[in-house]
Known about the structure:
By secondary structure, this protein is α/β, with parallel strands linked by helices. It folds into 2 domains: about 130 residues, P-loop containing nucleotide triphosphate hydrolases (Rossmann fold, 3-Layer(aba) Sandwich), CATH 3.40.50.300; about 70 residues, no CATH class. The protein has 10 helices and 5 strands; from the N terminus they run E-H-E-H-H-H-H-E-H-E-H-H-H-E-H. It has a 5-stranded parallel beta sheet with strand order 2-3-1-4-5, with helices on both faces. The longest helix is centred in the C-terminal third of the chain and has 26 residues. The radius of gyration is 18 Å and the shape is globular.
Amino acid sequence: xxxxxxxxxxxxxxxxxxxxxxxxxxxxxxxxxxxxxxxxxxxxxxxxxxxxxxxxxxxxxxxxxxxxxxxxxxxxxxxxxxxxxxxxxxxxxxxxxxxxxxxxxxxxxxxxxxxxxxxxxxxxxxxxxxxxxxxxxxxxxxxxxxxxxxxxxxxxxxxxxxxxxxxxxxxxxxxxxxxxxxxxxxxxxxxxxxxxxxxxxxxxxxx
Length: 207
């Protein structure tokens, strides 16, 4: 892994993607596990042979990638299928994420993991855990506006994730995203400077 890795997480609708973009604008490298998952399940993706073998041709779309709608129905109907899906995808995602963190040439890496707290396996790979936080009512409103879901549908998604309290308990740093973009940029800048200071202290601590 790179010398300094910041694990970035937060609940749905918290604004993780925008926060990641702001760190990249300041020179950080970004390794996004969601993006890696999409790569692995795209046509020709590294996970497709195993997914086809495990779940059959029905989960493969006309282009040769994962049919996400079909897979969602399968895992919703049978939790064991979710575990089998995760058993294929998660090791591949972790392997690629680690390789890309090691290869990064930036001062530090933002490792974006939406389910970082839930997975339990990324904590040891990170120097810091940064949680993007906002009130649950704000999360619900954002996702309803963005995805066209009902409030009950958003709450169901949130119920399947770690609670706000669990995320905050796991955090080394908390970034409050209350919707003010100028304030958000200022808060990211403060954390960026903090991570540069911590990075500069690493050689001294090892002497």
